[in-house]
Amino acid sequence: MRIICSLLLLGLLASCSPISRPALTKKFNGIEKDLKDHTGFILYDLDKKKNVFEYNSAKYFTPASNTKIFTMFASFKILGDSVPALRYVQNGDSLIFWGTGDPSLLYKNVFNNNRVYDFLRNAPVPLYYSSSNFHTSSLGDGWAWDDYNYYYSAERSPFPVYGNIFTVKLEGDSPRIYPPYFRKHYSRGEQKERNQFIREIHSNDFKFHPGLRRSSTREWDIPIRVDKDIIVTLLSDTLKRDVKPVSKLIPQNTKTLYSMPVDSLFRVLMQESDNFIAEQLLLMCADAVSDSLQPEIAIKYVKENFLKDLQDEPSWVDGSGLSRFNLFTPRSVVQMWQKLYEMVPRERLFPLLAIGGKKGTVKNYYKGDPPYLFGKTGSLSNNHCLSGFLITKSGKTLIFSFMSNNFVAPTSSVRNNMQEILKMIHERY
């Protein structure tokens, strides 16, 4: 299979400068036939302000984490430069607060300036927490239900703590659990093929199953089963002071506490493809345009106010791309990158993205000196996508979207074809 693809790509090499549409189409037909997948591709020249090549660019594909491009765009449009952490009212004898969805409090994957922690820890009056503005399910539509035990499927919530995960480190046969609150939920289970920590689906009870085989994995991040009681319990335990739940609708006269620059979230979102941050950003957008933390509100608002000019209306249902209900076309993805490029200065935008050979999910691929690829990957089982900006040796900046769905070949085969094609365009366009 690799020999066939290499021969096709040799032909591509000869036809990329200038791009020969018939030759490129033939190469994509051959690769699609060889991999038995569905492939879409589009290449847009920023200088010429036009598409220079398209292959199935108007077909719909499962975007996986390319959905995060839409989420970042929404967040740039709605949130501004700072992350709203909580909304609060302070009466004479109490401080009542509501979450905005900010994922950063004590989340190890994000820089934390402790502003929210210090604000709550040092409040001079009793603390009361209300979750009355949260109106969505913990897991998204179209998510795989049996992924609940994996870190990439952390639950959505109005006021996350610790990124809605707890961490278990195995030292010998003894687990070290953080935060310590979850020690009481631990027990030991039967032996399995490999070391596993498995949480009960409807509670935070979890078991360690020692493995028959040695495993290099020594650390696990396990999603917390979230409700308002666990939120106030964790806050009380962490702040070393009582936080009590209260059922109170959010009033119009709340004040807002901000936690950090929004770029601190975007960098982890785009480089590490953090699903949890993506989902929480969409909740924050909903909070900003309504009084409800509900992703559908944010999606509807963005589509109606900013995306009516897309050539193909996206089927957009979550922030992260975990849902297989998401469907985008390659040309809509390129249009989204165009919007971001026009809205955000290049010197701010590019460092937030995965950088070929340098940072994020493309650190080991698309290598160049200097880097020539800045973008976002997206992967689910049998689906792999890549889109973003391609800098050519001639100095041009191109936008591309490469989407491959429904393949049964190894993802590495799909990625290798993407890498070779994009590198050739980089060298020859």
From TrEMBL:
Family: Belongs to the peptidase S13 family.
EC numbers for this chain: 3.4.16.4
SUPFAM superfamilies: beta-lactamase/transpeptidase-like
Highest taxon in the source lineage: Bacteria
Keyword Hydrolase: yes
InterPro entries named in the record: Beta-lactam/transpept-like, Peptidase_S13
GO MF terms held by the record: serine-type D-Ala-D-Ala carboxypeptidase activity
One GO term of the biological process aspect: peptidoglycan metabolic process
PROSITE patterns to which the protein is assigned, alphabetical: PROKAR_LIPOPROTEIN (PS51257)
Signal peptide: 1-22
Cited Pfam families: Peptidase_S13 (PF02113)
Organism placement in taxonomy: Bacteria, Pseudomonadati, Bacteroidota, Cytophagia, Cytophagales
Keywords for this protein: Carboxypeptidase, Hydrolase, Protease, Signal
Name recorded for this polypeptide: D-alanyl-D-alanine carboxypeptidase
